[in-house]
Amino acid sequence: MLISTRDVNKKVTASEAIVKGISEDGGLFVMDKLPVISPEEITAMSKMNYIDRAVLVLSRLLPDFKEEDVRYCVENAYKGKFEDDDPAPLVKIDEGLYILELWHGPTNAFKDMALTMLPYLLKTAKKNLGIDEKTLILVATSGDTGKAALEGFKNVEGTDIVVFYPKDGVSDMQELQMVTTDGDNTHVIAIEGNFDDAQTAVKSIFNNSEYAKIIKEKGMHFSSANSINWGRLAPQVVYYFSAYADMLESGEIKLGDKVDFCVPCGNFGNILAGHYARLMGLPVRKFICASNINNILTDFFQNGEYDVNRHFYKTMSPSMDILISSNLERLLFEISGRNDKLVKERMEELKKRGVYKLTYQEKKELEKEFYANFADEDETADTINNFFMEYDYPLDPHTAVAVAVYSEYDAEEIVPTVIVSTASPYKFAADVVDSINGKLYDSAFKAAKALENLSALPMPESLKKLKNLPILHKTVCSKDRAFDAVLDAID
Ligand SMILES: *Cc1c(COP(=O)(O)O)cnc(C)c1O
Fold first, then answer.
1. In which element (H, E) is residue 341 found?
2. Tell me, what DSSP letter sits at residue 106?
3. SS3 92
4. For position 218, what pLDDT does the model report?
5. Which of 111, 270, 291, 395 to mutate to test the pocket of ligand 1 (most atoms within 8 A of CB)?
6. How far is the CA of 352 from the centre of ligand 1 (A)?
7. SS3 state of residue 420
8. Under 8 Å between Cβ of 270 and 115
């Protein structure tokens, strides 16, 4: 069963957690007892392909799902949708240094690892619960999530998806990716304003009971594809086991050897999935939490205080430009000894005053398990340049933040390290090329062409073909007309 981080007596099945998204008390769903993957199973995984590894791990994280249903979800998520049979290849860069490439999916960012599966998890969860209403997914996006959710839910029976993005707040490539999406259940709406306006528009729809009634009369209910959904977190646990299994299989490590993972963090969903893998038995020494100059997580790990009263910076790693990392609530729950009252108190503090503090004991505990630091814009650009010169490997700016933090990390003993890579450099080609040779391009496609000429990495087909696709979504609206736009879209 799953429980809420703010009320451990509130028990739901994984199916209910996926359909609800968030608990009514505002808490996030976590497993009442984390399952264990044994050393024998980790060894067995080294001989398996990614699909079988995912079925093994996910069957434990979705206890009320039948194994055949888990397989159905995994196969629909990964078969034929990624550039390669292995959706999460581990690339050896140097002795003891690996890059886990999570961006070979349909939208070239790591969000695909979970968002290709979420629609099938939701479909199965509804079947398990006997719900046959249509699900209307609403998403507010600052860039990567919107397209990944659109591709994931496209033409999935029993669902409709509406994505709101800030008209002038996403990159050209990201906008093109969204407005060219086909499928008969996909809708994309540009909101006049910034990401906050888009987010507010969606929240005000979710919080309006009148709107929920209107939608219900149409035989539908609202849901969200937000990164706090258990159905987004669970698929991400798999690739940590998979990377370790790959290292075992290639003889780089022996069973039980500890490794480090370095993760570029924003909402804290990716690294938290890794932490769960460790709690389930994966031999990990440290998780390195890398931030850009929006370094609230660095301060949290270093000082034991989470304080959102600070300046917000726009950077070249926009998916990490976040001040409130929602998934951190799940880590707080674990390190407080699963103290739901304390989590609730702290979340109320955060809402009221924008700050909460860890105990000395908790801070010490975290220091054993995590190392955190950040890289500024110059360090990130230098890292892209240096890494390219040394290894002929173009890093996207998010991954470059992780590499920059890792190279400053001064561990007493070196262990094999996996850099978790979250986006294709072609998604951010202008900044990547500028960092490598100082040339500026006014179009995303020209920059991508330049990157193709510089590096051995081909441009992903999915981005290449965008240039010739028709624009299918043209609606622009103000944030107070968002619900009318939803009604127009689904009629
Ligand atoms: C979403 C995202 C991140 C941050 O991941 P979290 O799970 O939110 O911490 C990092 N890099 C890229 C490219 C992303 O799209």
1. helix 340-353
2. T
3. strand
4. 94
5. 270
6. 26
7. strand
8. no
Q: How far, in Å, is the centroid of ligand 1 from the Cα of 489?
A: 29
Contacts of 303 (CB under 8 A, 6+ apart): none
Alpha helices in 281-327 (DSSP H): 296-303
3-class secondary structure, 262: strand
Residues 2, 230 contacting (CB under 8 angstroms): yes
Phi first, then psi, for residue 220 (nearest 5°) are: -135, 165
User: Is 259:253 a contact under the CB 8 Å cutoff?
Assistant: yes
Q: Label residue 213 exposed, middle or buried (CB < 10 Å: 0-12, 13-18, 19+).
A: exposed
Query: What is the pLDDT at residue 1?
Result: 96
Q: Give the residues surrounding ligand 1 with Cβ less than 6 Å away.
A: 109-111, 144, 227, 264-270, 319-320, 398, 422-423
Q: Tokens 């999406």 sit at which residue?
A: 181
Cα 114 to middle of ligand 1, angstroms: 12
Q: Which of 392, 401, 135 is nearest to 270 (CA)?
A: 401
Q: Residue 299: what residue type? A: D
Q: What pLDDT is recorded for position 375?
A: 98
Task: Show the 3-state SS of 264-287.
Answer: ECCCCHHHHHHHHHHHCCCCEEEE
* Distance in angstroms (rounded) separating the CA atoms of residues 326 and 135: 23
Whole-angstrom distance, CA of residue 292 vs CA of residue 148: 23
Dihedral of the CA atoms 33, 38, 39, 45 (nearest 10)?
-110
Give the Cα-Cα-Cα angle 321, 322, 325 (nearest 5 degrees): 145
Closest atom of ligand 1 to CA, residue 264 = 10
Token pair 């860039």 is found at 143
C-alpha to C-alpha distance for 247 and 229, rounded to whole angstroms = 30
- Cα 106 to chain centroid distance, Å, stands at 14
Tokens 């304390």 belong to 342
Task: Using alpha carbons only, give the angle 156, 63, 258 rounded to the nearest 5 degrees.
Answer: 100
Q: What is the pLDDT of residue 199?
A: 82
The DSSP code sequence of 345-388 is: HHHHHHHHHSEEE--HHHHHHHHHHEEEEE--HHHHHHHHHHHH
Say how many Å lie between the CA of residue 31 and the centre of ligand 1.
23
Phi-psi region of 333 (alpha: psi -120 to 50; beta: other; left: phi over 0): alpha
Within the chain, which residues score under 70 in pLDDT? none
